[in-house]
Amino acid sequence: MNPSIEKLVKYIELECQRGFDNKAVMGGLDRMLDPWRSDAEASRLDPTLIEAVMSRVRDYSGLSPTSREEALQGLWARLAREEGDLGAFPISSEGEAPVETAPEPSDDVKEDDLAEASDPSPQETKPPSKKKTRSPGSPASIPGIEEQDGAPAAMGAPLTTIAGIGPKSAKTLSKLGLQTLGDLLWHLPRRYDDYSQLKTINRLWYGEEVTIIANVDKIRVRPVRGGKMKLVEAVVTDGTGSLRVTWFNQPWIATKLKPGQAVVLSSRVDQYLGHLTMSSPEWELLEREQLHTNRIVPVYPLTAGITSKWMRKVMHSVVLRLAPRLPDPMPGSVLNTTGLMSLNDALIQVHFPEDQATLGRAQKRLAFDEMFMLQYGVLRQKQSWERLESRAMPVPDDWLSQFTERLPFELTQAQVRALNDIRSDMTENHPMNRLLEGDVGSGKTAIAAAAIGMAVANGSQSAMMAPTSILAEQHFQTLGAMLPTAADVHSDAIQLITGATPESEKEAIRQGLKDGSIKVIIGTHALLEDPIEFADLGLAIIDEQHRFGVEQRGTLRGKGEAPNLLVMTATPIPRSLALTIYGDLELSVIDEMPPGRIPVETRVLAPLERSRAYNFIIGQLESGRQAFVIYPLVEESEKIEAKAATEEYGILQEKVFFNFKVGLLHGKLPQEQKDSVMESFRQGEFDVLVSTSVVEVGVDVPNASVVLIEGANRFGLSQLHQFRGRVGRSQHASYCLLIPDSESEQDNERLKAMEATNDGFELAELDLAQRGPGDFFGTRQSGMQQLRTAKLTDVKLIELARKEAKSIFQDDPELAHPEHQNLSEAVERFWSGGKGDIS
Fold it and tell me: What is the pTM of this model?
C-alpha cells in the first residue's frame, strides 16, 4: 500500500473510533492536509486522488457528525478503488472514551511511538452485538476475555475471544505466532524495564532509569522542524523540584495531561543544556492501575502495528484470568522437594513481577518445567531402546589383545576405556546406543575399527556413514589399511559407496551386502538408498552425527534388526548438552591426545596484518609444508560466498603465492571435482588450498602446517577448533592464523579464547554460553518444543530436573498414576511431534 494512503487510512480509522469528533488530529482533521499532500506527492500518488482527498477533508470541520461520516465513507470507497480492498469501513465507536491521536512519524520518534501511529488494533471494534464491550485502548478499560455461562475461555480458543481483538488485530498478532489464548499466555517478555524504584526530583541522577510521581505544572505543544513535527513540552513538580519532560510527535498527550493532574513518569534521566530532563517517558495518571510505570515493566516481542502499551494491557487481562486456572502439571512431591513456586504464580509473576527476586523464582520454575519435560522424554527414549532385543556379540580377551597388539600405535588410556565400554555394550542382549566423542586427532577411528572387528568376528555386517565423500573416502582408506591387519577382515569385504560411485559398482555392492559377502560398507547418504539391503546389519556407525537428521539416522538403523549404534563426533559436547539432548545415549569420551602431538599455535591478527600472515605462509611453503586458506561460507548466501572464495583464489595465485600452486575447493563444485581437488592436495600437487567450510571435517593432510581463516568472527569457536584441527597432524610445528572482518571488541575477545587454549571441550563450553546451542535441537531431536526459558548452560538446574524426572520415571514410567495425569499431558504436549529420536 502507498505509505501516504496507509497514513490516511489510519487517520480515518481513528476519526471513526472517536465518533467523528474531528479530534483524530490535533486542531482538526484538515490540519494534516498540507503535510499529507507533501508525502503523497513525494510517494508519486495519482494527482487526481490527491485533489479528491483535499476537497473531501478541507471542509470537514464545518460538517455535522453524520455528514462527516458520509464524507469519510465516500473517501474510503475511493481509496479502496485505488489500492484494492481495504476491508469494511470502520464502525463508529460513539460513547467510548477518547483515543490517542496518531502522531506523524519522523526520525526522532521512538519505536513505541511509531507503533502507536501504525497500530491497527488497539481500538479495533466488532460489529454491534447484544453484549457491548469497552474499547481496550480506553483509559477506563482493560481488554477482557468473553465468557459464556460463567465458564472460562479455553486455552485453544482464538484471540478474537478477547474483547477488543477483532479479525484484523488477530491477523496482526499471528505474525508473532499467536493464534490462541494459550499462545498469548506463553508469549513471555523478552526483557524488563525496572521502574519500581520511586525517587523525588531532587534526588535524580543523569543516566538512571527511574519512576517519579509529580503534578503537571504546565504543558504545551509547539511545532518543530518547520511545522513537520510537534513537540509536547511539560513541566512537572513534586515539592522537591521541577523537571522538564518532552514527547516528540505525540500531540494527543497534551489533551490527556492537564495542569494540576498527578502523573507517574518512568524513563531514563537525560540532560539538556545542563538541566535534567525526561524524553518520551512512559506515563500514567496516578489514579489508574499502573501497568507501564512504577513497577518492573515487561517488554514483549512486537510486530508492526502493535504497541508496547496495548500489548501489556491485553497480556494483563489474559494472564490474570487464565494463569490462575491453569492446571499445575508438577506433582506436589516435586514442588515440596524443590521448593519451586506454583505454575499459576510463576506465570503471573513472569509477566508482571512484584520484584526482581520473585521474577527470578518465577523464571526458575518455568525453566525447570521445560528441562523436566525434556529429561523425561529422553528417559523414555532410552527405555524404548533398552527394551529392544538384539544378538549379543562377545569377543574373548585374547581377540581384544590381539587386535590392540596389531595396531601400528599404542592406544591411550582414554581409548582403552572407550574400547572397554563398547565391548561391554556389545555383549548385551539389547543393542548398544553409545556416543563416542573426542577431539580432532584423538583416535576415534581406531575405536570404530575395533567395534567393526567385533561385529565381523560374530558374523555380522557393519555400516559406517559419513556426511561427506571426502570423509567417507578417508575412513575407507584408514579402515581398509587397519582392519585386514588388526581384525582379520578380508580387504575385499570392505567397500565404499558414495553418490559418485558408478552405477555398475553400486549394483555389485548392493548384491554383496544382500548376500553377506561384503562385511563392511563405508559411505555417505548413498547408504540410505532403498535398493540397499543387508543380510545381517549388526553395527551402524554414524560419524559427525550432528550433520545428519533424525530421519536419516533412523533410515540406516532400520536396515537391520535393532543393530548396535555408535555415533561419533569430533565436536566436543558441553556437559549440559550431554545431560540433556544426548541423555538417552551412553557416553564415552576420549579426552587424551596420542603422545607426540604438538599443540597448534594460534594467533589473532588484524586485517592490516594480512600481508604479514601471507609472508609467514610463504616461509612455511618454502620449507616444504602446505597451507589452507579458509573463507566463510554462510549457507543462506552460499553462491555469494563461493564466488568470493573463487575471486580470492585468483588473487592469491597471481599476486601472493605466484611461485606456488594454489587449489580451490568450495561447496558449489561437483562432487567428483571436490574429491579430485582434495586428493591432489593430499598428494602435494597443490601447495595452498583455498577453501570454504567444506574442509571442516574429513581432511587429513599431515604435511599441512598452517591454516589461515579469513572472517574468523563469522564462525563459532567449536567450528574454528575444527578448522584448526586440519593442521597439527604430524611432527611439524603447526599454526592457525585468525583474521576477523569485524572490529567488534566482543568478536575479537571471543577469538582470543582460541589463542588461550587448544582444549576443544573448554571452547565448546564457551561457544554454548556465548552463541547458544545453535541447531542441536533441529538435528538431534524430533517433535520437541524449543525452549522458552530454560538455558542449556544452567547445569545446576539441569541436574535438579534430571534427578526429579528420574525419581518419577522409576516409580511410574508411563505416568499412569492418577496424580500424574496433568504431568502426562504436559510431557505429550512438549514432545507433541512424536517421541523424538530413539538413538
Answer: 0.62
